[in-house]
Structures are given as structure tokens and as C-alpha cells.
Amino acid sequence: MIDASTAHRVAPDWVYGFAELEPGQMTAIAEARxxxxxxCYPTGFLALxxxxxxxxxxxxxxxxxxxxxxxxSGGGKSMIAEFxxxxxxxxxxxxxxxxGLSLEHKHVPExxxxxxxxxxxxxxxxxxxxxxxxxxxxxxxxxxxxxRPSLEAIENALRDAYKDSPxxxxxxxxxxxxxxxxxxGTDRLSVRVFGNAERxxxxxxxxxxxxxxxxxxxxxxxxxxxxxxxxTAGLVL
Length: 237
What we know:
By secondary structure, this protein is α/β, with parallel strands linked by helices. Helix content is 27%, strand content 21%. The strands form two sheets. The protein has a seven-stranded mixed β-sheet. Helix 2 packs parallel to helix 4. It is globular and about 55 Å long.
């Protein structure tokens, strides 16, 4: 069984269905009876930070902040109808809706548990007027960490983590803008490291499709793994 809801994403008896999360995660999924499909926002956050925490580049007690925007299709039928209603205030090219303002969003426990960090991240999600696509960002004050990792060390850790992945790519941080629709219509996930070496600051940025690797694409990937098929069968790369 693959559960696409939030019901079992932190349940101890369910295998978390993010195949690239840990070195043995794909094997665990292949052997599992029950798999919980990850949330879209946590997929971006975990892809950025879990390899760095695992490598000891970021301390376990660091309080992460997560800035993220998603296409409105992530809100389901009611939000889609609202954003596509020409009489709605959201039917504008500049519509931006921040939410989760109580800091009790359902994705926070999932992020904390699977990143294996001590504190819940400060999650700042928003919906923008595009149907699909997502940007997830985690800023890092590298100069405050004991090891003071360089931008190069951060990027190398991510490249090493995903060197064998057909779906997650590490791109150079040499662009001036990142689009919410960069990976829309695909099942891949892209990560980049931006930063200022002199100031010791970094911005980790992930782009994905909230309907692809952030949802149905991940479910198909998990189904393929559990069935012993090519993990990317039927996916859009």
C-alpha cells in the first residue's frame, strides 16, 4: 500500500517514500508493505538539508527556516476553483497568498523527523498564481556553524548524495533568478547552492513540480520500486 495522504508520514511502522533520502531508502521501500508518500514541500526541504545534516556540515540543533511557494493546484479542487474564478480576488497575475501563519502546518513534523534535526523548522509557505510548480528555499548562516563549511563543501555534499539519481539534479548556482515553473510538467527535482562566501551565507534552493516529484510522480516512483520495475518507468525526466 502507498498512502498519499499525511496520515502516516511520521508513523513508525510505515516506510517513508523518499527513495533518495538515505543510502538504503530505496531498498527499504522495495521491501515495504506500507509506504507513505512524502509531502511536496518536505520533499524540497529534505532534498536540500538531509545530506548536509548527515554529513555533519549543518548542526542538528540549527533552527532552519523554510521559505516556499507553490502553484495553486496543491490546494486541491477548492483552491483551483478559487484561483481560476475570474470574479475572485486571486484571479490576478500578482496573486500571492501566505498561509500557515500559526506555525502549525501539517508538514512541519514530517520535515523535522526525516531531516533528523532537533527543532521544528520555521515554515513559511505561500501559494502563487501559477497552476503547478514549486520553489523551496533554506537559508544557511554558514559563518555561525562550528565547522564553517564552504559553499563548495555544501554543493559537493549534495552532488555526492544525488550522483546516482536519475530524478534529482544539482545545478550550478550561476543564475540570477529561479522560476517557480522551472521543473513544472516533469517528475524531477533540481537543487542549487547560492551564497556569499565572504559573508559566510548560503541559500539552498530546490525546484520541483508539486504534482510531480512532489506528489503523483513520487507515488509512481515508489510503485515502480515496490514492483521491482525501473524506478523511472512512466515518469517525465
